[in-house]
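Appendix B. One record, verbatim.
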Amino acid sequence: MKGTKTMSKKVYEAVMSGKSDNNINYTDFQNLIVDVGFEFQHQDGSHRFYAHKIYPATMNIQPDGNKA
């Protein structure tokens, strides 16, 4: 996997299940998207933008407290 940290299986499963969408730790989510191939592009205020080499969409994430 890419990224500086190993993807947490628990975080991956929580995101993929869709059952924890409002309860994912922001840093864990950032690590997850980097591990699956997204690369940081730029930041505008608290919004961080990521792009993927294969997928044309840009992902915009922003913290809500410590949640993504």
